[in-house]
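Researcher: Structure prediction, please.
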Amino acid sequence: MRYFTLSVIVLFSSLAWAQPQEVFESWKTRHFEVRYKQGQTSRKEARVVGKKAEVFFRRLSSYLAHKPKNKIVISLEGNRGDDPKHRWAYVDDTAGWMHLFRFPEDSFPYQTGLSHELVHAYRFKHLSEIEMPPAPAFIFLEEGIAEYLSNLIEPNKATFVNFGHSLEVSAGQWFESGEDIPLETLLSEQYHLRPKCIPQAYTLQASFIQFLELEFGHATVRRLAFAKDIRDEETLQSYIGEPFSVLVSKWKSSLLRRYQAIPNHVALGQAWRNQTPVLDMYVCKAGVDF
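Model: Predicted structure follows.
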């Protein structure tokens, strides 16, 4: 219990005499402050989240060779749907807090989004220095890096977007069904397509970052993770040294080769589509959405 402390904060409104008080507790670890509301989240849940986050933090800091100076705040917000403004975990763009929700498929409390959003929050100081809103190409890389690194720090994660399957299966099966979105389109229309085409965008972009590591090594992905001037295909080329169109061609060949080498890859792809929450997600269609 060396790095763990507990504090309680009682928030009063100017109409406290007429409204029930909201009591927030805070569970602190070495690198995190986990905030939660009494009656909505238990201290046991907060401790689990804090300990899991520390494990992911150690793996991420080893990969990126960098550590934030300040504690990262994780705000536990109850069940998905409790906040009508947000359907997914997110990092706010003012303070850099992680906001997590419980999902039915979580294998531990607040698992969905923990590793993915941690990558964003871990790099918040860097991201806060980027001109807002960032270019679509920057967000293309940002979300791809966050999802790919979340797979490294939380292998075989049973939640969004893998749901227990590999990136090769979740990304490769789009080509099997003819529902892949061209990466050139995802890069140029990131703000329009990513929120709408969630299962396609996150798997394909993460797969592309995976390919960059396989093809060019860890150092290239780490350099891209702290790039500030990625605006379009040309500036991306300046970091990697090859045209984006060439990279996309190589990525597709590499992905399909690895996907097709997996025993029962077609059945696994169908299981990911039809036996996980992906079944209820909207899948974008060529000629309709892009």
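Model: The two ends are 52 Å apart (CA to CA).
Researcher: Thanks, that helps.
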